Amino acid sequence: METISSIIDFISNALWSYILVYTLIPVGLYFTYKLRFAQFTHIKHMFKLITEGVVSSDKDAEHVSSFGAFTISSASRVGTGNLAGVAIAIFMGGAGAVFWMWILALIGAASSMIENTLAQVYKKKNDDGTYRGGPAYYMKQGLGLGWMGTTFSILITVSFGLIFNSVQANTIASAFSGAFEVEPIFIGITISVLTAFIIFGGLKRIVSFTQVIFPAMAGIYLLVAFSVIIFNITELPSVFSHIFTEAFGIEQATTGAFAFMVMQGIKRGLFSNEAGMGSTPNAGATAEVSHPVKQGFIQTLGVFVDTLLISTATAFVILITDVHNTTEGLNGIQLTQIAMNNTLGDSGSIFIAFIVLLFSFSSIIGNYYYGESNIEYMTDSKLAVNMFRAGVIFMVLFGTIASLDLVWNLADIFMGLMAILNIVALLMLRKIAFKVYNDYTTQLKAGKNPIFNKKSIKELGDVESWDDEHVRIHEQANAND
Fold first, then answer.
1. Where are the beta strands (DSSP E) in 366-423?
2. Which residue, among 191, 201, 151, has the nearest Cα to 354 in the 3D structure?
3. How do residues 28-51 score in pLDDT, each as one tens digit?
4. pLDDT confidence band for 430 (50 / 70 / 90)
5. Is residue 136 within 8 Å of 154, Cβ to Cβ?
């Protein structure tokens, strides 16, 4: 096992040190420039879009709203990365890693917008009237590269459905062990049963669950975390100074720690907000919207909520209490628990344990859906879906008793491979994405509620959605408004 762990650690470091660190930010900068800094100039518009209702002529179909798709992706996105991942980044890379998490979110938001817009363009309709889609679908339809779509489907199914879910379960078990001294195996059995109940209920049960649990858990956590920050408000200037000093520190540059710090910030930032990784488009494609760019904007907002609010709140709590420098032998979620304990007393660990349960369990459900959507891309077999469900339940149980380092390094490798494949596809489809975006902004500037018709972009060919009937339905809805 030690040899396997060493090999996995080597591959993970090589992938992130020599490829992804030099790919994610340049690509994000390119998309930011081509979209004319849309992630910054349209923030108010994003909040407006997230409340937009579903329009449909199909009375029997329960379409997923923009908010519903947002909560599926946010439930997956907001989890271990925001609590344990941030702690690991600070523990290993120092306070400066937080700055590079921010940079990835601000720049990577443009990549998130492109991938979710494309997911909407190439989405397919399910038998029950709902939609599915994601990178595998735009790789096959947009690029004509079925092998690429299949490869991505395998990577995301294994990584999110199996490995990432073991990471989430590992964090839950670690948090409860630290707070209550409960044996991990008992935690594993409990969350496995709960997972089975939700995932065997299909997409509609998943949406119903995430629409309730995500706003509640995020709101509670932010309320408590910001309370801790406010109680220690005089420490904030030194926290910011610490972050920026280390982010550009001479000491880090001369000791060779600078590149490692940047890598930790980008790695944990990507695990947390998933911008450009190709995961959130699987949720973004499920929404019923009048124009693909609407969901692109909404999922971009999710990147900001994840990193600039939730992850930053965790980072500030840790840095304010200075536990990363004063506590030995603890890493990951237990470091976050100790930070809370320093302000809230013993109740801090208990609070984090239950927040981790909510965050990570909702991530398990969102991650599962990403895998299911890609299983359906590869095969129509119900047996394959049920076998995948069984695999998810097993990995949740396995994750509670696995080694922390092994689980995280496996997650990093699959996450990195997914991101590389997805970024290649985004660059190849960039012209279509830019044309769809320009179509949206042209209508928006004209004072319209944008509606997309696939005929407006000849390169799209015969995509399944966005036909004349779609336009008629949404034009009628606009007229009624």
1. none
2. 191
3. 899 999 999 999 999 999 988 887
4. very high
5. no
d(CA 136, CA 122): 10
Tell which residue, 287, 286, 244, 293, has the closest CA to residue 265. 244
**Joined tokens for residue 443:** 């209508």
Tell which CATH architecture fits domain 2-480: Up-down Bundle (1.20)
Helix (H) / strand (E) containing 139? helix 135-143
Length of the chain measured in residues: 481
Distance CA 429, CA 449 (A): 25
| pTM confidence score | 0.84
3-state SS class at 124: strand
C-beta of residue 173 within 8 angstroms of C-beta of residue 187: yes
Report in angstroms the alpha-carbon separations of 109 from 73, 270, 302, 316, 454.
Answer: 14, 11, 9, 22, 25
Backbone angles phi, psi at 131, to 5 degrees: -120, 160
338-376 pLDDT, tens digit per residue, is 777 777 766 766 777 777 777 778 778 878 888 888 898
Write the DSSP assignment of 298-335 as a string of letters: HHHHHHHIIIIIIIHHHHHHHHHHTHHHH--S--THHH
Neighbours of 226 (CB within 10 A): 14
Other CB atoms closer than 10 Å to residue 127's CB: what's the count? 5
∠ CA 7-10-90, rounded to 5°:
125
Encoding tokens for residue 180? 């209550």
All structural domains of the chain with their residue ranges? 2-480
